[in-house]
User: Fold these one by one.
Assistant:
Number 1:
Amino acid sequence: MFCLPGPALRSRPSRWRVNPLVTIRWYLCRMPSRSQRLTAFARELRSNPTRAEAILWWTLRGSALGVRFRRQEPIGPYIADFACWPHRLVVEIDGPTHYEPGRQEYDRRRDAWFAAHGWKVIRVTDDDVWSYREGVVDLILQHIS
């Protein structure tokens, strides 16, 4: 939608009537889109990784496994912890918040969306990353091969 500053922006005496549709149109044109908000949130997540994400990223970064992974990557309406685009693989690290009521249903819907769009999802716990990092890397390598 092409947006021009409408009459709501110009200063005018208070006796002039403001068209609410013009004001709403102006406001909606200046709101960031969903993808812009998602990208900004992904940047924020990248700058504040959890301990498990930082440990796994240190192993995956820089094509260490022969493929490139992206961290906190927006894919559709979701943000994947780690994504490998050539193999359409998403690696999710589940921390304590993933066991809260309602969160598991959200994770199921999210996994179903990824599967419907051709992505494979690997879910590992943060305890697995801390204690068995090599096993997690082997699991990722099995899905890549």
Number 2:
Amino acid sequence: MNSETIDDATSLLPTDNFGYSCQSLTTNREMERIMLVGTTAAQSNAVVWTKLVDTSNASASYPWTLVDAATSQAYGLPALTSLSLLNYDGSVIAMGQAAGTFTTPLISADGGITWKSRKHYTYPSGLGVAPTSRQP
């Protein structure tokens, strides 16, 4: 296994509520962008990290990079629980909960820099939240 490098403070790595995505670049199908998203006590929004992988060259190494703009309040991804990331049509859709309620799915078409809602991405009416623990 190759040693992983990181270009920013390890204190900004997510510690909870993880989501992970891997997607081929549209400009080069031999390159993939890995996205790691999660929460940390130090940030009010989720933190987004990305890394490139060259599938045609195993010796190529790219660092994990913090997406600084993703922590902004205007278009940042909120800190969500039960976070799931879904690749769709060249973008990444984030779905999760805040305060026990499903939030509007958010989409990033720019590698995790900005997250925006789209009116046609919704959940079914009456979708409930699963209990956090099961009773015997």
Number 3:
Amino acid sequence: MAANLFTTIERQLRLLTRPQTLADLHNIAGATIAPLVERGFDREEDPYGVPWAPSKAAQREGRKTLTDTGALRRGVRWKADSRALVFSTSGPAQREGYDRVHQYGASWTIHHHPRTNRFISASRARRLRSVVPVTDVVLPARPFLPDRRGMPRLYEARVGAAFRRYLRSRFGGP
């Protein structure tokens, strides 16, 4: 009896570390987390439940923060295989770099040339003496994906429940 139990456990442990099982688990995690990322956009909050700083433009236009074109939200993608699950962005949000600006925040100084009445780049401003900085612009971080703080509790609970369902269906048990 004990020999059969140990044989069964050994077989299940081998199955658990097979690439297909790991790929299944990573895909389950991706499919579970993707709607939670969407939920963050709907609620205007980061994955940890902290509200985003409201966008002045969104307030002025009567819309939600990070929804101007919808490109950032639509650009969130995930890919899973036996080695990992990776979330990333694609499309204009990634090409134009505003995915990183919103995820991590950014700051810069806008320079103004007094004679031409035009905005100029920081590198050109350094070469000219008559340039006056107009303003420092600060965009606060509005994380839409988990960061260094680790796996958000809600994500952990949902992924854990999905893993338990998968493992029960695959290997049996309560």
Number 4:
Amino acid sequence: MKNTVIFLVIATGLLVSCADDKQTTTVRSSVDSSTSINSASADTHPKDQSPASDATTLMDTVPFADTLHTAENSLDVEGLYTGSLPCADCSGIKVILELKKNKKFSLREMYEGGKELHTNQTTGSWKIAGNNLTLQEEKSAGRTIQYKAGENKLTMLSADGKTMNDATATNYVLVKK
């Protein structure tokens, strides 16, 4: 038991002393006048000298822009969505919305339980900016409909692009099939 304790104390002491003499491994790069990037090797640097003191670091010279992850390619919005939306003068509007890969859509709205039952069918184009999906009907005076795109769902927005009242927002959701 004493041998184990002594061994642990010595091992801890060695680890602590090694931490003070630890080599700093840094990957550096420099940019020359022809703007080529040269990779540098790992070096040991004294504590008072910065590893990048003789070179410009890569992070300082090459700006990073994440162009691979946009809402358009991160969210899989193409597909068929269905749901029932509130209606002022009927029991609800059954909606079937198909978003096609060619940025076109077809929308079918069936007004149910009112005095006059009718179906509205329209087509147009769609675009996405941020998480907002905009449908633009092809008709000359076509309406614009906006949704907030989420994972496998679309939530209808007001005419000015704002989220509906929190209490009723769940009534404006179309679910992807």
